[in-house]
Amino acid sequence: MQDMFNKYLSLRRKILVVDDELINREVLGNIINSDYDVLFAADGDEALKIIRKEEQTLSLIMLDLIMPHIDGYEVLRSMQNSPNLKRIPVIVLTADKSAEIKSLELGAADFISKPYDMPEVILARVRRLIQLAESYAMLNRTEFDALTGLYNIEFFWEYCSRYDIFFPHVQTDCIVININKFHILNELHGREYGDMILKTISSFLQNTVAKKDGFACRRSDDTFYVYIPHQPDYEQMISDLESYIQSAAGNARISLRIGIYTRTDHSEPINSGFENANTACSRGRSSYKTVITKYDNALHEKELYNERLLQETDKALQEKQFRVCFQPKYKITGAVPTLTSAEALIRWQHPTLGMISPGTFIPLFEENGLIHKLDHYVWDETAANIRAWKDKYGTSVPVSVNVSRMDIYDPNLEQELLGIVHAHNLTTSDLLLEVTESAYTDNSKQIIRTVEALRADGFRVEMDDFGSGYSSLNMLSDLPIDALKLDMGFVRNICVNEKDMKMVNLMIDIAKYLEVSVIAEGVETEEQYLRLRNAGCDIIQGYYFSKPLFPDDFEKLLVNKEWKC
C-alpha cells in the first residue's frame, strides 16, 4: 500500500496553460515543464475542450483573462457550473489588479502577474497550489458519508467543538434519530430500499438543519446525530420529517425514535451530551410509533438506578436474589381445564430495593448483554425444580423457558441446554423453549437452523408473542415450531373489540393450518376464557386460572392436575 502511495506521489501532474500570446505560453511552459507535463490552449474555446477531455487528469490551469472569442472569465463561469470541473484549481494570469476580485468570485485560487520575471516563485506557487488542492480533495472525500452526503462522525465532532468555541453562550441540543426496525425494512424490501430511506432522511436534515445553523451526521447504519441551537419544540420539525419520509416510503410504515438532550454547560464533553440523547432515544425502543424523548432529571435518576442494577447483577445471581416462579398453563379442549405445563418467570428480590419488576431489569439486561446469564440461571433453576418434583411426587409437568435473541446467536446454545437437561437427569421433553416472533425475523435462516437442531434433540419450541412482530405468511410456513403463543395484547381486548377477536380467530386458523397448538396468555376473566375456548384455543395461561406461583405453592398443583384443585 505504501509503495503504491509513493508511486502516486511521484507521478508527473498535468497542467494546462491558456494564453492567446505564443510567447507567454512558451515562457510559462519553459518554467514548469521540468516538473510537469504541460498542455497549451490559445483561447477559451480550445481551453474548455481540453479541460472537458482531461477533467480527471488535470492538476492545475494557468488562465489568461483577456482572450478573443471566449475569455478567461467565461472559462471560469463554465467551470463553476460543473461539479467535476470546479475542483481543478486555477491561477489567473493578469497584469490588471482590479481583475482579482471578480476572478476570486468566479472561483480562481491564485494570481500571477505579468511579466513572468520570477520563475522560482511561479514554480513554488504552482507546486504549493497543487498540493493544497489534492489535500483538500482527499479531505473532502473523508469529510462526508458516501451514501448520504452528511458529515462523517469525526468531522461532526470537530464542527460541534468549533461551534462551542465561537458560540460559548448559545444553548444547544444534541439529537439522536434512529429508524425503528431498520434491519426488517432491509430484509423485507431490500438494501436499495433501505439506502433510499437513509438518503431521504439525510436530504431533509441537510435542508432543515442548515437553516437553523446546525450540523448533522450519519452515526451508524440507521442512526443520525444532529447538533443545533436549542429549539423550544421539535414536534413540527419531526412531523415534517415523517411526512417527507412517508412520501418516499410507499406502503411501508417508517417510524423513528428521537432522543434530545439540551446542553447548558459547554464545558461538558460533546460526546457525553450525545450519550444522554442516546439514552433518551432508547426509551422509545418498544414503540411502533415515532417517539420523542427528552433527557431530564427523571431519566438521569433512572440511568443511575439502571447502572446500579447492572453492577449488582453478578452478585445477585450468586446470592440467588433472582427467584423463579411458575405460572400454570391449562389445557381447555376437554370438559374440565387440566394442568398441562407451566411457564418459568423471574422475579428479583433485592435486599434493599425490594421486589424489582422484570419489566425493569429484563430490557436492561437485553440492552447490555447480560440476558444470557439470566436465561442460563432460569434454565438451571427450572431444571432443578422439575427434578425435585419428580423425586418428591414421581411426577411433574413440562415447563417453558425463554430463549432470547442473544441465546439464539450463541453457537453453544444446543450443548448448553442439553448439558442442563443431563446434569439434572431430565429429558428434553421436560423443558419447553419459548422464542419470540420478532427473534425469527432478525436472521430467519440462522434461527431456523438453530431451532431445527433443538427440535431434533427432542425439545419442543413455542413461538411467543405471536401477532406482535413482522412474520409473513410465507415465513410462517417454513418456521419449525410446535405451538403459537398469542400476544396478550390481543387477548386483553377480545371482549370489547371485535377486531381483536377476529385477529385471534385468524391466528388460531393459521395455527390449525400449521398443525400446531395455540396458547393464549394474559387471560383474566371468565368471558375471555369462554370466547377463546369457543374459538378453538388449546391452552390458556393467566390470572383467571392462577397467578405465577413460587415453587412451594406450585407443588400443590402437582397433587391434583385439574383446575381449581
List the topology elements.
Layout: H1 2-10, E1 14-18, H2 22-32, E2 37-41, H3 44-53, E3 58-64, H4 72-80, E4 90-94, H5 99-105, E5 110-113, H6 119-143, H7 153-166, E6 172-179, H8 182-189, H9 191-211, E7 215-220, E8 223-229, H10 235-249, E9 256-263, H11 270-282, E10 291-294, H12 297-311, H13 313-318, E11 322-331, E12 338-350, E13 354-356, H14 358-368, H15 371-393, E14 399-402, H16 405-408, H17 413-423, E15 431-436, H18 437-442, H19 444-456, E16 460-466, H20 473-476, E17 483-486, H21 488-491, H22 498-514, E18 517-520, H23 526-535, E19 539-541, H24 551-559
Parallel strand pairs: 1-2, 1-3, 3-4, 4-5, 9-10, 12-14, 14-15, 15-16, 16-17, 17-18, 18-19
Antiparallel strand pairs: 6-8, 6-9, 7-8, 11-12, 11-19, 12-13
Termini separation: 77 Å
CATH topology of the largest domain: TIM Barrel
Per CATH, the architecture of the largest domain is: Alpha-Beta Barrel
Principal-axis shape equals: elongated
What topology, given as strand order, has the largest sheet?
11-12-14-15-16-17-18-19
What structural class do you assign from the helix and strand content?
alpha/beta
CATH homolog superfamily of the largest domain: EAL domain
* Low-confidence runs of at least 5 consecutive residues: 1-10
Number of domains: 3
Tell me how many strands there are: 19
**What percentage of amino acids are in beta strands?**
15-25%
**How many helical stretches?**
24
Helix amount, in percent?
40-55%
Give the overall average pLDDT. 86
